[in-house]
Design goal:
Structural class: alpha+beta
Shape: globular
Largest sheet: 4 strands, antiparallel
Number of helices: 4
Helix content: 40-55%
Strand content: 15-25%
Radius of gyration: 16 Å
Order of helices and strands: EEHHEHHE
Length: 130
């Protein structure tokens, strides 16, 4: 039996599909779905669980602004890149996180990646209406 080859460090980035739902301006109550790939780096499980737990608790308690601040803190620590037209820079990340739809999509994608939630295969960069 051969040894399992897994990098147990926290310096490895990995790609993850992100889905951003933006309200459709021409069809009330419907969304346009935009997809892209983000690159996240691993962080210690206890730290990730702590930050995600704090954000979820803040949401449950009705403190959405606090939850969004925690989401931003988490993304600043783990998001290392993306395949969007704008390059991944600190300034562009901050601008992206001011967009509530992008913030929600990136945060949800990261949570899916660390919880092992199944993601359907989907083509990168496709947009559709739902």
């Amino acid at each position: 039996m051969s040894a399992l080859s897994i990098n147990i460090g926290y310096d490895t980035s990995y790609p993850w599909p992100i889905e951003v739902k933006i309200p459709d301006a021409t069809r009330p109550g419907r969304f346009q779905i935009h997809r892209f790939t983000a690159y996240f780096k691993a962080m210690p499980t206890d730290e990730a669980r702590d930050l995600v737990g704090k954000a979820d608790k803040a949401r449950e308690d009705g403190h959405r602004a606090t939850a969004m601040d925690i989401d931003k803190e988490l993304l600043r620590r783990v998001l290392t890149g993306w395949n969007l037209a704008e390059p991944h820079t600190t300034a562009n990340l901050e601008a992206a996180m001011r967009n509530a739809f992008l913030l929600a999509g990136m945060n949800e994608g990261y949570k899916q990646s660390i919880t092992g939630e199944a993601v359907l295969e989907r083509a990168e960069g496709n947009s559709q209406t739902q």
